[in-house]
Amino acid sequence: MHDIDDSVVPGSVYLVDVQEKTTVVHAENDSAIVLSPTPSNDINDPLNWSRGRKFLQIVCVMIYTSTIGIGTTVLYSILQPISDDTGIPLATLNAGTGYNDARIPVLGWGALINQPLALTFGKRGIYLISVLGNTAICLLTPYIKTEGQWIASKIVQGYLCTPVESLCEVSIADVFFAHERGTYIGIYTLFLFGSNYFAPLIAGFIYDGQGWHWVMYWAAIINFGSLIVLFFFMEETNFVRNTSEATEAVNFSTNKGAEKDEKESTTSSPVSSGDLTGIPKTYLQRLALFGGRYASNKLLLTMTYRPVILLRFPVIFWAGFQYGTCLVWYNVLNATCSLILSENPYNFRASFVGLTYLGPLIGMLIGTFYSGWVGDRFAVRYARRTHGIREPEHRLWLMVVSLVLCPASLILWGVGASKGISWVGLVFGMGIISCSTGIGSSLSISYALDSYKDMSGEVMIAVILVRNTLSFAIGYGITPWLHMGYQNTFISAGFVGLAITMTFLIVIKWGKSWRIASRKRYWGYVADGTLGH
Question: How confident is the model over 56-70, as pLDDT tens digits?
Fold first, then answer.
């Protein structure tokens, strides 16, 4: 990728052709929507895939996300039976689960190895190895007898499962355009957190009927089943793209209402099938574990440390910080749910505690629909008001509702528990906490990807590093924090959440100036060589 105009503002995309005169490719269902990134004329470009093929790919990504989530969180509600059976102290079991939970940086910092490998050799193979490894760990867990074995297994599992946190978002960006990406990021967020809520729900019933060993066996069966599905249906989405948002921005400005490039037309599909070149991959070629080489050894090495350097960009750091804060409230909910509902006046059995996670599941569904599907349409409508230009900050206005939901839900949960209100009120509070978590998480991811799309793989590593490090640090303070009592703890948490959520107003005000300040360094990184993902 050469001759990039470093005066272009990263993330500022011409999304709506307000005069419908620009000679660029338009969306199929709306002739005013400009497709960004501009698809190439290569028949194997994932942006040129049919809607059905794209849908199958996103289904595979969601299957992967769900099964990894189930395999890593299904044991949360059965730690006490595991401790009774193995003699491993509950404190050690809790510490071990942290190594494959987003609460600890292993899942984030491990991406510094896994992500560059996926971007260099192919995502498909990394996904399959991840699921296979998770299956093996789930099968081995019932045979663990010592503290050392437990900790070691969870560290290995945490490393193997890193793609679920940072690679799935990049796979979505590989096949979907800017005007639709938020919807699928929202769906991803739903399955990421939803699987974590669903796992305790089923674990309690399996334990009651078959014992804790079978909880892990069923997790292994689910993971192995998904491995088979992914092997036959998940495709490689890495594609070396010779354009960037900067080159597209220059083309838009020079061609607007004038030049008629033969490769760009106001057609109804990304690129009409007759204009595509190349030989499509056969089904057997698509089954290859690693289908090619997408980066040099030098770039592979660079990608292992550059995400840390990217943390100097305020936009990326804020996105990780906001995402991490959302995860903190998710962790606080998990840390206190069983404690509250299994004690007086509720006295719920483990299976009933699991059922209460239906509240967070519904809340997450609402939150991710709002931030994803509604967010995409909001961004397009806002762009129409700004001469067709979509700024990443536009989408952040949707966080206004979190100013109410975040503090209100935390206070309802904590104060409600301390006053012994009806369990219905607590489950409602759990749902609102989850809804707020879904909104903040999805919008943070979308904001980071929209701002620096041409380095999405490395950007997501940087975001996850901040997210998991913050969550890990605060996670260790949850137990001492609870010594204040549920009421005081969650009132203070509500105000902390409100203060942190309000920072989106600062980003709306100054976010573009931060992106402008970073443009020369960012486009320099892009010119040095990226995958065009």
Answer: 999 999 999 999 999
